[in-house]
Amino acid sequence: MNFTEYSTILSAFKEGVFTSILDSYDDICHAQDQLIAELTSKGAVIKGWKVVEDSGVFILSPIFDFQIFENKGAQLPKDELSGIEVEICYQCSVPLLASDIEYAVSNTQPLVALEVLRPKINDKSYQSCDFYYNFGILVSSQPIASDFSLKSGQTYDYSTSAPDFFEQKKAVLLKGVQECVRRGYIDDFFFMTGSLNGLIATDSCLGKNEVIASNGTLISIDVV
Question: Which of 93, 115, 155, 164 has its CA 20 to 30 A from that of 173?
Answer without folding.
Answer: 155
